[in-house]
């Protein structure tokens, strides 16, 4: 047990050291939010995966595999395909626009009021996810150290603040790559052990029927495709991931960083699936959410288990940290841009604003709204997707059609409809899809009106 705690603590301390190292410490606002626009392809990839690969890609995938089998791979497949789409179609034009935020980019086509509305709606969406990630971090600490939720949430909040304030985006790439290295070491070893203990593919096939356990649609075709679309919309509509694109040295670097991210994310899900299937085979009555943590506790050497649990915690902390940076960047650049100018003042302001965002999420969690936040967390994707998905795609690919009014209306109306639908408990349609439909209808109407006029 001492080896476990020593390796756990040393891993956390080591990553915090890298977050505050001289080479990655931010000295200006531009370095804090965009890394000075000097990131190479690997740094871009580290910044993307450092936020995108969180608890859902590891613990969540193993949990879904325990329940449904191979279809649990959809989450990381969707994330990888989203990064591939980003590299093929969006990375170069977005980087070459020389903006800092997505609302700043779309304001060129839909006006300043649309920029403010987009910033508020997407900031709210990311904020909800910060609360959910703090809850995930707290749960890991509570299980490991038998802490109360209050204490584990407090420690999680401090970790998120520490990871965010050191170098901001300048440190995000480096820390993201270190995190991915730890996650890969953990999941490769876990996947190998799980497959070996299960008796290989033959042993798994003897235990489980082909359907639903080895089908991509084990929990439904509609549900699988829905997860894929949700990930695509989520990546394209979130400031945090595109901020990594904006930090790249040039368009080609941004594009290559997206491709590297896709290649790094794709295999992770399969490793989690192997762990989930083995735990279902060996302990079918256990709590599904504990599939990966229990496997690590039972099968890893103590020193490696400490590193592995630190990696899982850092995965959730990194996601919350990236979201906090995204919220503060959007608020400062798009809404509070006239407040405090000059490198030193702006850098301090960014750090204070980021800290305030995380502390507000912490307070919301402590007010016993945890369960409510989990009930509302589906609104996060809906708010971000309905606000930015189609407006961004139309701005990049169809800007010659001058859909300024339609874009502005979409940015105001679509996310508002998401909130309304989300509050209606008996509505079966997902708020995300309802918001996307509203947005698309508004753009289609604007296109037809423009065509009729001209």
Automatic annotation (TrEMBL):
One of its GO terms (molecular function) is transmembrane transporter activity. This is Solute:Na+ symporter, SSS family. GO terms for cellular component: plasma membrane. The chain crosses the membrane at residues 6-22, 42-66, 72-91, 116-145, 151-169, 181-204, 224-246, 258-280, 300-327, 348-370, 376-399, 406-425, 431-449. Belongs to the sodium:solute symporter (SSF) (TC 2.A.21) family. InterPro entries: Na/Glc_symporter_sf, Na/solute_symporter, Sodium:Solute_Symporter. It is a multi-pass membrane protein. CDD domains: SLC5sbd. Keywords: Membrane, Transmembrane, Transmembrane helix, Transport. The lineage of its organism: Bacteria, Pseudomonadati, Thermodesulfobacteriota, Desulfuromonadia, Desulfuromonadales. PROSITE patterns: NA_SOLUT_SYMP_3. It is found in: Membrane.
